[in-house]
Amino acid sequence: MKRIVAVNSNCYHGFSLDEAIEGIRDAGFHYIELTATKGWTEHVFPSMSFEKLDGIRDRLRDAGLIPFAMSGHCNLMDTERIRDFIENIRLAAFFGCDYIVSSIGEAHLKDRASADDASLVKTLRGLLPELEDAGLTLVLETHGKEHGTGERIASIVQQVASKRIRINYDTANVVFYGDVDPCEDLKKCVKDVGYLHLKDKAGRNDVWDFPALGKGRIDFPEIFRILEESGNDSPFSIEIEFTQSGPKNVAEVHQAVKDSAAYLAAHGFEL
Asked: What domains, with CATH codes, occur in the chain?
């Protein structure tokens, strides 16, 4: 099944966007998910000058990388952060993205607010006009203890009932946060999945250990089979987050991206 296969620039957390562009291009990819996650990886951000953002757009074009998605995590349960997320939507539109990714809570920052499902659904529906204007699909990531499984996110997506809001299924987060088998969980929500972070998991469920694809224990062939049988051709975005201590240097990240490319090619995917 033909699908977009990309790399999340968050693989290069702690390194520059230029280094990410170089590594992703050299590994043979043609698509990139840009990261605009406050306080974590700010490879692009709404506060950057137009000149800087336009220069990034030029560098991506020169490298032959299409910025089809943006990781723009905000706490969507915190009304004070909704304006920030709207700015991320507009930034994603500036780069010509089709998808914007967010967890429901704040990714990598301590959440300041929470909300019941009814309030959350109301907030998400309130974002629909912005998403429509930008031509974007918001994909909600399996992330955090409260929203760590696809089944849980599906219950929210189904209440919103819009093609503009779907699930970003992170194959390792559902293990780390949700403590579930990703294959069994995916079966419960696959019809609502519109995007996937392909991320491997090594070590105990509760240990931060996310190596290159094929280096951990996620059963990707079974995940691919479930998607194929369901007719789900959602984009893949590779995410490698290493261990808590991080990679030794940028060369280690470059190699992990190349290893992941080789793994997907061995399973029949075109980059």
From this structure: 5-266 (3.20.20.150)
